[in-house]
């Protein structure tokens, strides 16, 4: 009896090893870079050149492939890019290498690539608020040339990313629109480049509360005390401050206040455009625990870098 069990177990292990090796062979035989450029962008939201740059940046931050069934870095990154682009694990024909990647393997790839994109070196390089006066002057010049609005160093807003009901502290994620979410704070410049992102607050937190906890707020307060005149553009959910310009509600038609508000709202649409480009369906097939929420925060950072 024991002998039969051991033989059966050994045979099952042999089959699993054969399947892993076959999957590796099929993955290695696939080359997503052979896709036409437009189709490649459709699946991964990056050009081939952009992907090659990401590959160079991340290779030193990814674990070494040690086994003969391991996944090459190129395919790890493409699997993660496909997820970031679509918001789910989609085994589509264009990304055919995913057809030969098991769910556990894909999950491991996603964690590794997301972790690599969340290293301090990468985050500080690609999501960076303008800390020097020269950097701020460049951004202000862009806003002035594009919108005729002086002194602006960014547009700020919050966007809600939907979640399945979390297992813990559910009330912190239930927003005023009656669904569970993260309230993600975004600041972008005139070119829609992300300058700052914070995905650590639940949907129950108001935009103004998230902003009051933000390190950028204290930084701008310090600049204002030192006599530097600049500001962010935010909607009426934020308090008017020397470093925060908000619309004037109910401005009289034809008044300077109405002109200012129209100009403000046109600039403010930049952040809405960025939110539209970045919003990912954050829902999952299982209730969220703390580790899943942390992963979603890290995925948001990763997508903003890209």
Automatic annotation (TrEMBL):
The keyword Nucleus applies. Signal peptide: none annotated. GO terms for molecular function: hydrolase activity; metal ion binding; nuclease activity. GO terms for cellular component: nucleus. Keywords: Hydrolase, Metal-binding, Nuclease, Nucleus. The keyword Plastid does not apply. Its cofactor is a divalent metal cation. Residues 156-257 form the DDE Tnp4 domain. Belongs to the HARBI1 family. This is DDE Tnp4 domain-containing protein.
């Amino acid at each position: 009896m024991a002998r039969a069990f051991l033989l059966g177990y050994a045979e099952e292990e042999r089959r699993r090893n054969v399947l892993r090796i076959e999957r590796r062979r099929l993955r290695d035989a696939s080359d997503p870079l052979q896709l036409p450029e437009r189709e490649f962008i459709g699946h991964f939201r990056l050009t081939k050149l952009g992907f090659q740059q990401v590959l160079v940046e991340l290779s030193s931050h990814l674990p070494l492939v040690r086994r003969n069934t391991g996944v090459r870095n190129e395919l790890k990154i493409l699997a993660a890019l496909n997820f970031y682009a679509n918001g789910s694990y989609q085994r589509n024909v264009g990304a055919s290498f995913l057809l030969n990647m098991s769910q556990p393997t894909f999950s491991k790839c996603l964690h590794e690539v997301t972790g690599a994109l969340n290293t301090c070196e990468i985050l500080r390089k690609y999501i960076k608020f303008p800390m020097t006066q020269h950097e701020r002057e460049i951004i202000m010049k862009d806003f002035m040339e594009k919108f005729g609005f002086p002194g602006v160093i960014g547009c700020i807003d919050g966007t809600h990313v939907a979640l399945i009901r979390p297992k813990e502290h559910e009330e912190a994620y239930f927003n005023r629109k009656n669904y569970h979410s993260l309230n993600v704070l975004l600041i972008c410049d005139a070119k829609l480049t992300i300058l700052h992102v914070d995905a650590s607050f639940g949907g129950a937190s108001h935009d103004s509360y998230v902003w009051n906890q933000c390190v950028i707020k204290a930084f701008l307060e310090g600049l204002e005390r030192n006599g530097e005149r600049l500001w962010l553009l935010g909607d009426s959910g934020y308090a008017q401050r020397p470093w925060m310009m908000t619309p004037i509600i109910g401005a009289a038609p034809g008044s300077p206040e109405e002109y200012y508000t129209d100009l403000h709202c046109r600039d403010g649409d930049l952040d809405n455009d960025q939110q539209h480009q970045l919003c990912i369906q954050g829902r999952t097939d299982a209730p969220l625990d703390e580790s899943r929420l942390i992963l979603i925060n890290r995925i948001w950072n990763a997508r903003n870098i890209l």
